[in-house]
Amino acid sequence: MKKLLTFLLILIVTGSLAQRQATIYDEENVPEYQLPPLLKSQNGRNIKKVKQWEKIRRPELLRLFSQEVYGKIPGEIPAPEIIIHETNGSAFYGKAVRKQVELVFSMNDRELPVNILMYLPAATPKAPVFLGYNFLGNHSVADDPNIRLTESWVYDHPSLGIVHNQVTEQSRGVSAENWPIEMILDAGFGLVTVYYGDVDPDRDNFSDGIHPFHYKAGQEKPRPDEWGSMAAWAWGLSRVMDYLEADELVNAQEVILLGHSRLGKAALWAAASDPRFAMCISNNSGCMGAALSRRRFGETVAVVNSNFPHWFCGNFKKYSGYEDELPVDQHMLLALIAPRPLYVASATEDQWADPLGEFLSAKQASEVYQLFGVEGLTTDSFPAPDQPVFGRVSYHIRTGKHDITPFDWEQYLKFAQQQLEPE
Q1: How many CB atoms lie within 10 A of CB 48?
Q2: End-to-end distance of the chain based on CA atoms, in angstroms?
Q3: Cβ neighbours of residue 4 under 8 Å, at least 6 residues apart?
Q4: 261 is catalytic
Q5: pLDDT tens per residue, range 322-346
Q6: Half-sphere exposure of 125 (CA within 13 A, CB side)
Q7: How far apart (Å, rounded) are the C-alpha atoms in residues 313 and 228?
Q8: Which of 41, 157, 238, 402 is catalytic?
Q9: Which of 66, 152, 171, 261 is catalytic?
């Protein structure tokens, strides 16, 4: 009985921690913290060579992130059935080939369709592409009546015509400003996008999406060390990459992973765990994305675990309010992408995402880029708004709110072009 009361007390304290902690928006209130060393293994070995990083420290960090933050994938899922619904070369007045592909995953009497929308430059064979999840369904990224409406669960937005978690024609094209497709095409790139809720609906409910594919008898949610939604979304990006490797219209060596907000968090983990992605762009990803957790600035681990308990694995809950006990921090996540190009971006009015913490994280990760003989972030000073710092590790803070805008896309296109130029 005493143990039960103690356990209940822990749950009450942990559950209310996010509400009790004052949100930090002033640098003077950021607590003193010490980051875990990036180039020192758990047994104290200094990592001085690329081979040591690749054989010792990188696998160690991947294991720690998987075990304590994202959760491990419990097993293999068979390759999907691939259904090509459309290949149309007259999109955007002939500028683009619009392609719609469905990946149907099947296992243990379960079936999960994941729909891919592609706009590829008609004049560029084997085009490089940006790959990113969207928030409201593929049909939301362009006012195009030919895009198939998602049938997956979507957050209610009555003003957008999304009611009872189902979309309607009214939601077509509502996110088009975040996806400047013609700008992307004119720069010589294609766009590949997927509704993230196809892979796993963004709610505290593990009865749908990909998770139940591996449940044992009587199991209703992943075990504490098994994947949460963030790891499932990262897994989904890798499955889309599997398809892109076989698509003759895509240059699979030049797939640029991009994510905004929570989908920026997922993109970073996907890029860290899957080296096939050529580069990664994190837009306003904040806590458990690019920002350093130990700063506790804006959104914190406790807030994430309280508001979105399904995002990360059960083991991660014990770090609510105890960021200093985490064996990792997000500079290590960014470093796992090295030596591939990385872009981290923030916004002046998005203090919740801790812009300075994102910048400092990218700067710390540059230590591993330097190990590869590549200069990472080229400045020690936090840049002025709207003044991007370009390099193998790039950064900008844009004037404005939590969003992805044409200004952001202009920088990402310039960054991608620079990084893909022959040396």
Answers
A1: 10
A2: 68
A3: none
A4: yes
A5: 999 999 999 999 999 999 999 999 9
A6: 1
A7: 5
A8: 402
A9: 261
